[in-house]
Amino acid sequence: MTAGAFTYEALPMRVVFGPGRLADLHAEVSELGLHRLLVLTTPNQRALADRVAGLLGDRAAGVFAGARMHVPAEVAAAGQSHAREVDADGCVAIGGGSTIGLGKAIALETGLPVVAVPTTYSGSEMTPVWGITEAGRKRTGRDPAVLPRSVLYDPDLTTSLPAVLSGTSGINALAHAVESLYAPDTSPVIGLFAEEGIRCLAAALPAITADPSDRDARSEALRGAWLCGACLGATTMSLHHKLCHVLGGTFDLPHAPTHAVVLPHVAAFNLPAAPAAHAALSRALETAHPARALADLATAVGAPRSLAELGLREADLPEVIEQVLAQPYANPRTPAHDDLDALLTAAHSGVPVRG
């Protein structure tokens, strides 16, 4: 492909954004022609799901509050079965990446459309990427059938998210944009989304840490998560996401904190081989040392600084390396075994990032 050439395909999705927009949910599903919606959530957010079912009124087919992190195959099967039992013609997934991931797993099997209502900053609602964990392995793929038909962003729904979870969730979203900057299928449009999304989150997350009730910061963070999620939906993910999928799928590490720990180390490894991405990330973060700035941001929002803090044993690192080396993916640099060992050892022990 000649220099400057690119391909960009816009994803067919409707976005509704603004404080108080949850009240528009009934009108939104009516616009989509849906009549029997199964509300999905986690056990901890059952009360919110019941509220959503109330807003849907006679269009609510029930609540399934069994979503779990990394979408275990048995949970996906239970959700699919429940959707059939209540004769649902769609799902409303209200919550973070776990719930939206369950909605995608149901859509993958049944074809039911999903309306996503995010309550965190993960950004996965903007993508056709699905993931299901079975027997200690996380399978992922891309399928337009799992892309939510509509996403309703209401910043008011994020105000109860604790500051530290807001921070790690936001860095999870930010990771999508970072990897999109050096993806082989990036484009000028994605570059604009990525820079603005990173800029929004880098400003908003410390403000939320200082004052979790700051509604302007909450709104800015959610806008950043939307833009960063759009990057993930339109480009190929690389080494960072491969590592996080193995760490989550095989070792059940918490998804967002794992992203917060790993991202600065992967950025330090990749950016020297991706000068355009380095320049874009430097502009967004207003620094000549973007990998170090990512680590500083994680520290500022109170994120864990090592994989050891998340429960990974040093003895587990060879298994992570083996799985990553066995999986094909595009990356600015092709890491050898020793590269992955050095990167993971530093991330495991929390060695400061210098890049």
TrEMBL record:
> Which CDD domains does its entry note?
MAR
Which spans are transmembrane here?
A: none
Coiled coil feature spans: none
Q: Name one GO molecular function term.
A: maleylacetate reductase activity
| Domain Fe-containing alcohol dehydrogenase-like C-terminal, chain residue ranges per copy | 168-347
The cross-references to SUPFAM superfamilies, in alphabetical order and at most eight, read: Dehydroquinate synthase-like
> What keywords appear on the UniProt entry?
NAD, Oxidoreductase
Q: Which residues form the Alcohol dehydrogenase iron-type/glycerol dehydrogenase GldA domain?
A: 12-155
The record's section on InterPro entries has: ADH_Fe/GldA, ADH_Fe_C, Alcohol_dehydrogenase_Fe, MAR
Q: Which family does it belong to?
A: Belongs to the iron-containing alcohol dehydrogenase family.
Under which name does UniProt file this protein?
Answer: Maleylacetate reductase
Q: Which organism is it from?
A: Amycolatopsis bartoniae
